[in-house]
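#struct-help
A.M.: can someone run this one for me? Single chain, 373 residues.
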Amino acid sequence: MRRFNVMLTATLLIFLAVFSLLPAFWPDRAFSEAENRMLQQKPRLTWDNLISGKFSLAAEKYLDDQFVFRDLWVSVKSATELVLQKKDNNGVYFGKDGYLLQKPAALNEELLAENIACVNRFAESIPARVYFLPAPSSVQILHDKLPCFAEPRQTLEQLYLIREQLASNIHFIDTAAALDAHKEEYIYYKTDHHWTSRGAYYAYREAGRAMGFTPLDLNDFLIEQACDDFYGTLYAKSGHRFVQPDAIELFKPKKKLSCRVEYVQEKRTTDSFYATEHLQKKDKYAVFLDGNHPLIRITAQNDTGRKLLVVKDSYANTFVPFLANHYEEIHMIDLRHYNAPLAPYIEQYGLREILFLYNSLSFGEDPSLRKLG
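D.P.: on it. C-alpha cells below:
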C-alpha cells in the first residue's frame, strides 16, 4: 500500500511538473477556430498599464485564452455539464433536437427606449416612408426546443415593446406569426443565432405585403445547398461540441437577376450576392454579402424604379437578396461601422424608402443607433 502511495505521489508530481513547464514551450495562438474569435496575446508591461490595472486584466485573459489544451478542456467541461443535465452555458441554452438557442439577457428597457426614440426622431426628420422589421430570435419562436425548466425572458416581450413605442408614421412589419407558422421547417440554424435562408424568405413574404411588392413564390427559386458543415456563433460561444453541423442554403431566383454589388469602403464590386470563398472558412455565414460592411450599394436590373435604404445588422445579409428582385437600388448601411451622417446620403441618392432591419434582441443592446441623431 505504501509503495502504491509513493508511486501515485510521484506520478502526480511528474504530471504537475510537466503541465507547469508546458506553457513555456507551447506556442501562443492568435485565433480559436472552435470559438471563432481572436485570442488575447501576451500583454505589454508598461507603467501606465500597470497603474491603471489594464495589465492585470489583460494578463488574466491571456492566461485563460492561451491555456494549454484549451479546446480540449472546453469540450470536457461541456460534456460534464451535459452529464449533470445543466440546461445552458455562457448564455446559450442546450435545446432539444440538437438546437442551441441564445439565452436572452436581462432587458435593458432604458437603452431599448433610447434606441426606439432615435429611430422615431430620425423618421420624423426625413421625407421618406420608413419601415421597421424586428427579426425574431430562435428562442422567441422555437419554444418547443427549449430545455425543460428553462425560463426564457424577453420571449416576445421585446417585440411588443418595440411595436408599442414606435411612432405612428413608422410601418411595423410583424414576422413573428409567419415564422411561428413554419417553425417545423428549417427556419433557424441549430448552431448559429441567425435565421436560415428559408426563415428569411418567410419574413420577406411578410415584408412584401407591407412594402407594396408581390413576393416571389417558393417555387420561383432554385434552392442550392452550399455546404453542410457550418458551425455557428452559438456553437463557438457555448463550448457544446456534441451537436451536428448546419447546412447553408442559397435561394437563387429561376429568372436570373443581373446585379452589381459594390462594397464602397473596400472599393470593389462583384456580380453576386454570395461570397462563396467563405464556405471554406470558419465563418461560413459570411457567404451572404461577404459579412458585415459599413456601406454596400446594390444595383439590380429589374426596372421597378424603386430605391431602398436598409439600416441593418447581420440578419439583413440573408434577407436583402430577396428584396433585390423588387428594387433597382438597395443601399445597406451598418451603423456599427458607418460614421457619416445619414440625411445627406439619403438626399444625395434620392432614397424615399427606408427599412430598419435588426434582430429584435440585439436592437435593444446596440448603442450605435445613437448615430441616427
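A.M.: thanks! The radius of gyration is 24 Å.
D.P.: also worth noting: The longest helix spans residues 2-25.
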